[in-house]
From TrEMBL:
<keyword id="KW-0472">Membrane</keyword>
<dbReference type="GO" id="GO:0016787">
    <property type="term" value="F:hydrolase activity"/>
</dbReference>
<protein>
    <submittedName>
        <fullName>M23 family metallopeptidase</fullName>
        <ecNumber>3.4.-.-</ecNumber>
    </submittedName>
</protein>
<feature type="domain" description="M23ase beta-sheet core">
    <location>
        <begin position="92"/>
        <end position="189"/>
    </location>
</feature>
<dbReference type="InterPro" id="IPR016047">
    <property type="entry name" value="M23ase_b-sheet_dom"/>
</dbReference>
<keyword id="KW-1133">Transmembrane helix</keyword>
<keyword id="KW-0812">Transmembrane</keyword>
<dbReference type="Pfam" id="PF01551">
    <property type="entry name" value="Peptidase_M23"/>
</dbReference>
<keyword id="KW-0378">Hydrolase</keyword>
<dbReference type="InterPro" id="IPR050570">
    <property type="entry name" value="Cell_wall_metabolism_enzyme"/>
</dbReference>
<dbReference type="InterPro" id="IPR011055">
    <property type="entry name" value="Dup_hybrid_motif"/>
</dbReference>
<feature type="transmembrane region" description="Helical">
    <location>
        <begin position="14"/>
        <end position="35"/>
    </location>
</feature>
């Protein structure tokens, strides 16, 4: 009996302790199995992220694009300077539109690290590549993406997507909107692109 007059709780039987130990062992083995399966992918994601950050640091050491230094994202297509043109809701155009048939491959104008493959309201399906000097190269209104993901490295000329009319361009002639952002501010890409 305990000091307060209550009886001691009965000790678990050998059999119930064995079952409890067996259940704990199964849970532990299940957790080890899950960690064994997840750890390589977590490790791979971490490695990919670290490599991408290292590549971005190296890119920051390189020169920003200069006049006539970048190839067109749509080679052999006519380039027109549509920078600053009026847009809906009082906006002005922060890039240039390059028209081409739907699903024409869009090429990266620069080497760099893919920072976004996704959607937004205005641009629809977009890809952003961080290139030399930390400049962001923005490709919008895509029909579809190439086989790329954030943190992937792309070289100049690699296909990153396909011409479309997604986002607020729905129903307009198919094109890619190409923009360049330096230190977070849009700059006119037209003078930086090589003209054929």
């Amino acid at each position: 009996m305990l000091a307060d007059g209550n009886k001691q709780p009965p000790r678990p039987s050998f059999f119930s302790r064995l079952i409890s130990l067996f259940i704990k062992a199964i849970v532990l083995l299940a957790l080890l199995f899950v960690f064994d399966k997840l750890l390589p992918s977590i490790s791979q994601q971490t490695q990919s992220f670290v490599v991408a950050k290292w590549q971005q640091l190296n890119l920051l050491q390189q020169e920003l694009p200069t006049e006539n230094s970048l190839p067109s994202p749509l080679p052999e297509r006519n380039l027109t300077d549509t920078w600053g043109a009026a847009r809906s809701q009082g906006r002005s155009h922060e890039g240039i539109d390059i028209f081409a048939p739907r699903n024409t491959p869009v090429q990266s104008t620069t080497q760099g690290v893919v920072s976004k493959v996704g959607e937004n309201t205005l641009g629809g399906r977009v890809v952003v590549v961080v290139g030399p000097g930390g400049a962001g190269h923005y490709y919008a209104h895509l029909e579809d993406y190439a086989d790329i993901s954030p943190n992937d490295w792309v070289n100049q000329g690699d296909v990153i997507g396909y011409v479309g009319d997604s986002g607020n361009a729905k129903g307009t002639p198919t094109h890619v909107h190409y923009g360049i952002y330096i230190n977070g501010s849009a700059v006119n890409p037209y003078p930086l692109l090589q003209k054929d």
